[in-house]
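P.,

For your records, the input lines for the assembly:
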Amino acid sequence: MNASTRTEIEHTAADWLARRDGSAWSQADHAALADWLDADTAHRVAFLRLQAAWDESGRLQALGAGWKQPGPPPRGHWAQPAQAQGAASIALAPDLRDLKLAPRPPVGRSLAATAFAVLSIAACALFAGWGWRTYTHVDTASYQAALGQVQAAPLADGSRAVLSSDSRIDVQLSRHRRLVELRRGEAIFEVAKDATRPFVVDTGNRQVIAVGTRFSVRRDGNDLRVVVTEGTVRLETTRTGQGPQPMALLPAGSIALARGGDVLVRSLPIADAEGMLDWRDGTLAFRDTTLAEAVVEFNRFNARKLVVADPAAGALRVGGSFRWDNAEGFARLLERGFPLRAEYDASRIVLHSR
Amino acid sequence: MHSPLDRWFAEEILVHEEALLRYLLRSWPHREEAQDLRQDIYARVYEAAAKGFPAQPKAFLFAAARNLMADRARRARVVSIEPMGDFEPSHVLVDDVSPERWCGGRQLLHRLADAFDGLPDRCREAVWLRRVEELSQKDVAMRMGISEKTVEKHLAKGMRLLADRLYGGDGMARDAHSVPAKDDDERQHAD
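Structure tokens returned:
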């Protein structure tokens, strides 16, 4: 093959793809494209190559997260090292250092491809474009925060997630649904309003569903805590067996605790519910909380664990706002204000009654 | 449109394009023919895989490259024997990006950002509106104040340039387009 043949084929392949992407695509076009592809393997491989690159370009949406102005950002927008910009700018530009894109799940891919094939046979002219778009616009991303880190994750739909220490979410955005799988830990979600695409946080056996609102979901194995600070969310449990599907509507100020088959919902003033999400800003707020519970909160964020040595110590009640990255400072305060004695070593801090 | 063979081709073969081009540029005395060789190699690999998937796609791809170069060298009878020695691709297989890493890493996002930034202005804008803002071609045309036909042309061009950068890598894309770019302009004038 010489150069002019090769570039000609590539141009023709690109023209086909661009036309198919447009509105005037007809059944006759579809047949003509099929003929062209069958005519020569060189046609087919050129077409496949461009198509694969065009598929990949759908991931531009992940890069576009956080860019709110119409049209593309200026060149070099993604080139500056996020390190130098500090924490404040994480919300503006996706932090590529910690961003990981999972490969597209092969299941979804083959399902979509199968669906596409079936549609093509049934009514390809009408539905080809639709199937194509549905397939191409599933955007997949994973975010995680390491122990002791709080990580902002701007999602491609304009929503924001803030991940707490040792947490991970997998995000799939399609045209019909926004699915976030909370693999472990806790995340706060500020959901961009989009009535056509419900925002679903899946924790394995339960789903938390919102349209446009602010809430957090925490997962400890299968135990779940949902805190709603704005709007309303729906908590659903995956149906198992015959029984009715348990469901709870949670207005702002709700705290839902789900364990096993039970869901306990408490209502708090919204300011108190907000207080439960203070970890985002580096602090933990307690109000008449047992020391045992407070210690669990601290330990979410620190490798050096606080340990309560006896039940009497664990039953003490504490209040106030503390930096979660300073467990030792917390222990020293406790020693001053409570009948407690602390032992400090490299891996843990043990609290005893005095 | 996405047969298992097509998917296999995208996932197991295209991801090695940059390494393949480097190998071709090193081994073949005529740099400007690298992209044509690449295209022929793809066709051969695709046809062979239609009869049965090779167990080691990457090794298979490089073997196809070596065979094609050897065929051409024999036919042309002008190629000296020295580059033949370099046809041995074994050293290329070491320390190269595996498809998993290529597809999975944030590397891809960086690469995509670079490829996107490398597009000409209007083309870049059209691709953005279509792919990120998800406007239809018609709406892209309205937004940019151009005809739908022109939007289609921008997108077609974007597809070609993105493919060259994403798969071929940076250096090669520039290299490859010193020639087709001219060809491109002629086309635009002709339209």
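Two observations worth noting. DSSP finds ten helices and 18 strands in chain A. Residues 81-109 of chain A have pLDDT under 50 and may be disordered.

Regards
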